[in-house]
User: Which sequence fits this backbone?
């Protein structure tokens, strides 16, 4: 169900993706990746408060979830919450060994957005 939701989201079928995630969460709400996927869906639809809530749920289940931290930092920047975005940045900076080259590029882009907004 999680993979289906991700594929649907990537194809722009956000309503169907969100439904798939909610179905999976109704079975097991302890899977941090589902919350991250739900947050990503909300981020793509510019529902930043819902995205933030979903990423917080994901991070409560796995505080070292690099993707949720990156996503949370981006949402916070988009909301104009630079101080909390800097907190996420500091956490991610301490996890550089766990970041892929793509993650590092994304973190750089998030930092640029934070400085320009």
Assistant:
């Amino acid at each position: 169900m999680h993979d289906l939701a991700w594929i649907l989201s990537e194809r722009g079928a956000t309503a169907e993706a969100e439904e798939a995630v909610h179905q999976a969460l109704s079975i097991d709400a302890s899977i941090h990746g589902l919350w991250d996927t739900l947050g990503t869906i909300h981020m793509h639809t510019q529902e930043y408060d819902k995205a933030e809530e979903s990423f917080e749920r994901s991070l409560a289940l796995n505080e070292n979830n690099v993707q949720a931290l990156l996503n949370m930092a981006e949402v916070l920047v988009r909301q104009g919450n630079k101080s909390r975005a800097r907190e996420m940045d500091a956490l991610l900076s301490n996890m550089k060994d766990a970041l892929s080259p793509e993650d590092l590029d994304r973190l750089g882009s998030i930092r640029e957005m934070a400085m320009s907004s």
